[in-house]
Here is the input.
Amino acid sequence: MDTRSAGSHYGGFELPTLGVNVVILQDEKILVTKREDIEVWCLPGGGVDPGESLAQAAVREAREETGLEVELERLVGIYSRPRWREGGDHDIVFTGFPVGGHLKPQPEEVIEIAWVSPQNLPEPFFWWDRQRIADAINGTGGVAWLQDGVWPLAQKSTPKDLYKMRDESALPRQEIYLKYLAEPGPLGERLEVGTKGKESNDEQR
Here is the structure.
């Protein structure tokens, strides 16, 4: 799940949102974060701010969420969730490595950070990040994936609406993800441009 702000509007329709993820590599491990809002593990990342390049956004998000200064190394690909809320969402994924800073979770957003093996990801873990990790580890570049993540509420609803549902339910926070978001929609995941790396996504699960 990504709860970045809704996109801009044009002609009465919400435009897609744009975000970044960074697969931070060190000693054959990757750095992952556990979100505060639904207590699920994922890659560091978030939305692009006005006036930023995609690379600048990726470096900033890595710093804010993990406390590390990161040098980007490679552009992995584009990962699209066209049915995510009204306008859809598109993420650019980079690889990078730490060059400074100290591990420090971002207050109110990240509750835990861990270096983990890509073959042994903690659970629960965002399903849409698994393919992104597989591509990063396998040396894949220049790919475009459709990932059928389906927003569980009305398309015009906002992250605040999801948080309201979370807080009004008797479910533990992780159950919001497990109940409503843990599986892709009927379109699944489809490689639209490029070729897969030497290992399949299943080998990363």
